[in-house]
């Protein structure tokens, strides 16, 4: 073996370890190393899974600049078992979702619209800086009259642009905000994972806004106030003494009053009257390109970790069948931060009448939200021969598929689109049919004995649809399917 | 330092890291890296450990080809605290334990007999292939008349031979089956660890068979139906709609009926009338040799990870005392998959009247099953000066030694053999006597003060049996011991 | 690139991985790798955090050589939520805290005095050896008359000297003892973390002494016997049969009686009449220097892992402000064993009227014990606009700041000193004011919109105290502060 080659090999191997962004990122996320995929979530002492339903949000919180609808885990057995809540937020044009953090790890999927978003990472520098060149006006400054005091060029932490199909990950305890600088509503669906192992409190989603008065603006949709229905978000400044805040912020008593938001009734999403000036990427494309241009393995440090990934592009699908649809996964391999949040996600599109083959998830629950169309979904549990759920999942509804439980879906006549949040970063699944079917791992004579069928029949179920992976076009006439569904 | 040498050293060191099977295997097991030995099990909110007993199975499930007896954790406080159940399965000649998976990590010890076994690993290829040479009949095909359709040579995932003293590890969610191709009964004892950190459901062992009708064949041994006594295993196909299964399996409605097992009353272990043809290793020895011949560090990938280890051979004992017996440990160092299951095991043999020195396990519970003979076992807890248990543990019985609790055992006149499942992959123990006694770590003057004895006496208890490790032959006459035991 | 250079680089990189003490140490601690900072503690199903109080110990256990006061987690909602108890132990001159282990990970801070301490690590050699040179008397031997039998030179595991400001870490299951060889009382404050992930039992602190009779000496301070108030420490030998102990210790029945401590009423801290001879470091300084002299990366093996760090020296402060005070952190980076215990600690000193800026801890609870002076502490929760706690924390009192909850403190006229135990090894905090304020990460226009203030005011709160980090001197007159406090 040539000595130079061996050096390169040695270096290469070592680099493979060292320039994995994991160790650096682990420092801040408090997560494990990249090869570490252990899930140690808080577990419900008893999962009530005798029946499942397609569910709607149980609560709505209105605000000046939009509203949030919540599926609360205290309200639904299936979410309680999974240890997660789900929320759907609509932000109107010029709406600012106030900066907030909580004990939940969050995965946010952009269902509609486009906005800017940021996460403030503790200890990281303000890297978005407005340089003022001589004779040039700082574009971040709103008006010329503030020039004497306000002439200091602004700087803040990274701001990213989000568009339809993006998913963004937020570690627990990180402050996050969204601002809709577009002309149409933004709709976000968020998994709120309080069972994450970073959370040392109980399973309540306990949150803190940096401004406003969430105690006032929130009101339950219906009269019934279940356990989780209390207001569990606060303005973090509200409880501190005025004189302390005045001192540590170096400001006046009047400003402290405003910071504490005592008389602020705008709610958790406010309207910014004349638009918000900040240093932000102009267009989505550019930011994306820039990232790819300069990739050298070094830039994935703690403070520049990538937290966003687009899932909408069929060209990047993991499973693609021109007759049936496509599936795209985001996990710790393509979005490393998910290695620390122990979460992943699946975006899927099924064409008219196509079938997602029956399968189970080995190391995660799957929280499915229908972003479009509808499907007949069947879920099989361990305690009864009938399915736990056999019905339609329609746009705007969600359902939980518990770990190890088997699930299949057949798209309706308008197709089916979904985002599925998974409570594990290595959400391996095992299919019951097709190319990667578990039946293919078994001897054909065993199948014959197990099912009391002929060897010929056993070969059929082992290989007949053996060239198709995960999603199949329907071979039956669509009328048959519709008949079945209308009976269900 | 010579440059070639340094290259080799550099390479060697890197190899030591990279070719450790851990990182690869971690991808599929969802476990931690090899050096990671953290246990984050589900913990019982309250351990009832005021009394311990040697226990028998509380439930028996009969089937055509054998039967399973279960110690259910819902039935025994000691198992509830440990978060595990234990089962003992007897498979008759030609019996096939149907393919099954559950949310429990499993360690199975072969008490009697010999069989073949397989685990279907998601995403792994079918590596056991029957090649058909020209003019040669495929030996896996049962009959000549199937030649036109059935002429396709079979292929399936790895099948391994198990014999007495083997232990086999099964990650949660992996499909597993056993087939007794011998002439005598096979007896398996299995730890069902639902407290494993991969399980995100509650502590119920929720299982899915790939065939049959477990809802019908199971019946509780006694009338009392405790919480865990419900049927919590299902045929995974049973709840799916016929037309979906027909489509995705590419088969007929009649076959789907058979797959769903509606009228199958054979139970979870079926009899294969004319024996089962498959591609399997002919003899145990050969497989073992083959593994050693080709070991080059590369073969321990995800799909070929070793899941079996033989514990019966005294020549590989970790502790060996010709007068007292021997102990053999299987842990993540000699069976790497245990690094991901966070489990380990100890096989022990004590000769007539020999003593297992008092000790405690720092990072695991120990679930002891007596495979032969009997012993007087004493267990000391933290709340009372008397022992929690002082009695006989006889062949076929089991008992839990909780973490940190002290235990000792003295074999009866026929000796004592056991398998001990440990709920940690680094099950360190600390002895109270002998070569590695904790007393040897303390200054002799401190022992004298602690126990209010002379320095001479302190030296005695520190060094008198200081050349013996873990297991000691009895120095007293056996009659004295028997007297004691008969009184107990 | 020069080949020699590349070799060095390759080696260097590999060394960086391999000679990190982590992998070796992980073997025994059962902890994760160094870069692994995941916390998977046992979590209280429901945290009662509507009110917080500065609390005193609820129980006192007296013994011959001192006494222990305990804040039991069963008695205080805030400790129950954190999964920890706290104890304060006073050891009199010549007092020996008997060797003991439990299922709690322990962090012990020396508030007063100086003593020797040791942890017996399973499987590690007795490295403190008394060599007897010809004609020289062994200094460890108490008297000449024992020379014939007692002439064997003693050896035992490492003993370390502790002084004021030291913190010492003890993994669960490790035997530990303290001996006060000085002339003044030693006062130790200990975090007892039963929520640590190594503990597989419930959250009770279940402990075992190697001697004595804790069942007799302990008596509750008050009549009320709450759940945790039972005696949950035992002499580990007490429950074993005499004849077994006689055999395995190779000693007489009389000595076994003494070992079992049946008639020992001295309690858990005994007085050693004529002092205790052992092989121990003579002076604190020397040990410290020795460690630094020989540091080459190799000495941090399993058996020689450093378990002690001094936190008292202002010269090593992490945050230092001559007008306000200083803060020193001990975590997995400067005391690697904390990487396995998933704990860390903060020692702080605030001068008269100085302020610890409002902040929250992202990945840990903070258990604050006041070692000196007093402070006005304010804690803000997520459910009400008022603070959960606004009052004095005085010397000898403690309080829990839950994860993510915001806290600030202003020292009283005599200053404030504290030790804060944190239930995470990467206890990142985020400040609401000063140099690392979260407000600096937000665009200035956003602050103006959020708080409905001018851009000028927004710049003020963003930058006005922007040169100060974490601790600020008060700019207001101290009289104002005192007024406020007297009203509180």
Main attributes?
storage protein (chains A, B, C); RmlC_Cupin_sf (chains A, B, C); 2 domains; 12 helices; disordered C terminus; Jelly Rolls; 10-stranded antiparallel β-sheet; homotrimer; 7-stranded antiparallel β-sheet; signal (chains A, B, C)
Explain how this protein is built.
With 488 residues, chain A is α+β, with helices and mostly antiparallel strands. The first copy, chain A, folds into two domains: 59-293, Jelly Rolls, CATH 2.60.120; 312-434 and 469-487, Jelly Rolls, CATH 2.60.120. The first copy, chain A, has twelve helices and 26 strands. Chain A has helices at 3-18, 22-29, 77-82, 147-150, 214-217, 242-249, 253-260, 284-293, 338-341, 444-451, 455-463, 478-487; strands at residues 59-63, 66-71, 84-91, 95-102, 105-112, 114-120, 128-129, 155-156, 159-163, 166-170, 175-179, 186-193, 207-209, 233-235, 269-271, 308-310, 319-321, 325-330, 344-350, 355-361, 366-380, 389-394, 398-401, 406-422, 429-431, 471-472. In chain A, strands 17, 18, 19, 20, 21, 22, 23, 24, 25 and 26 form a ten-stranded antiparallel β-sheet that branches. In chain A, strand 17 (319-321) and strand 18 (325-330) form a beta hairpin. In chain A, helix 6 packs across helix 7 (253-260) and helix 10 crosses helix 11 (455-463). The first copy, chain A, starts with a helix and ends with a helix.
């Amino acid at each position: 073996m040539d000595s130079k080659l061996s050096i390169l090999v040695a270096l290469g191997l070592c680099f493979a370890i060292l320039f994995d962004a994991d160790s650096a990122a682990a420092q801040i996320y408090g997560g494990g190393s990249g090869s570490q995929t252990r899930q140690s979530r808080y577990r419900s002492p008893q999962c009530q899974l005798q029946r499942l339903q397609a569910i709607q949000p149980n609560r709505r919180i209105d605000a000046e600049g939009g509203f949030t609808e919540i599926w609360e885990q205290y309200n639904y057995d299936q979410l309680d078992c999974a240890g997660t809540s789900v929320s759907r937020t609509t932000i109107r044009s010029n709406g600012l979702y106030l900066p907030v953090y909580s004990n939940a790890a969050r995965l946010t999927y952009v269902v509609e619209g486009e906005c800017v978003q940021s996460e403030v990472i503790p200890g990281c520098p303000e890297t978005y800086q407005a340089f003022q060149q001589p004779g040039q006006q700082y574009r971040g400054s709103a008006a010329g009259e503030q020039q004497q005091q306000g002439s200091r060029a602004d700087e803040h932490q990274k701001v990213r642009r989000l568009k339809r199909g993006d998913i963004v990950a937020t570690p627990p305890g990180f402050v996050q905000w969204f601002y809709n600088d577009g002309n149409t509503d933004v709709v976000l669906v968020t998994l709120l994972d309080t069972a994450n192992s970073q959370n040392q409190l109980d399973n309540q989603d306990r949150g803190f806004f940096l401004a406003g008065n969430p105690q006032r603006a929130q009101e339950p949709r219906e009269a019934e106030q279940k356990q989780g229905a209390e207001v569990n978000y606060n303005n973090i400044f509200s409880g501190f003494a005025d004189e302390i805040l005045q001192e540590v912020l170096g400001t006046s008593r009047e400003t402290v009053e405003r910071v504490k938001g005592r008389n602020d009734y705008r709610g958790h999403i406010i309207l910014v009257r004349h638009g918000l000036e900040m240093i932000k990427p102009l267009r989505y494309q550019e930011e994306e390109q820039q990232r790819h241009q300069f990739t050298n393995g070094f830039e994935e440090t703690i403070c520049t970790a990538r937290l966003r990934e687009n899932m909408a592009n069929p060209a990047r699908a993991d499973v693609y069948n021109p007759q049936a649809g496509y599936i795209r996964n985001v996990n710790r391999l393509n979005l490393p931060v998910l290695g620390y949040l122990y979460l992943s996600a699946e975006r899927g599109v099924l064409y008219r009448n196509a079938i997602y083959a029956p399968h189970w998830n080995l190391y995660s629950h799957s929280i499915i939200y229908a972003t479009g169309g509808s499907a007949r979904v069947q879920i099989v549990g361990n305690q009864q021969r009938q399915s736990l759920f056999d019905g339609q999942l329609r746009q705007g509804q969600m359902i939980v598929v518990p770990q190890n439980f088997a699930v299949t879906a057949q798209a309706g006549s308008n197709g089916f689109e979904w985002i599925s949040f998974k409570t594990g970063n290595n959400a391996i699944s095992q299919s019951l049919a097709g190319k990667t079917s578990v039946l293919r791992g078994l001897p054909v004579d065993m199948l014959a004995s197990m099912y009391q069928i002929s060897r010929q029949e056993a070969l059929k179920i082992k290989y007949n649809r053996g060239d198709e992976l995960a999603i199949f076009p329907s071979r039956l006439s669509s009328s048959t399917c519709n008949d079945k569904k209308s009976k269900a």
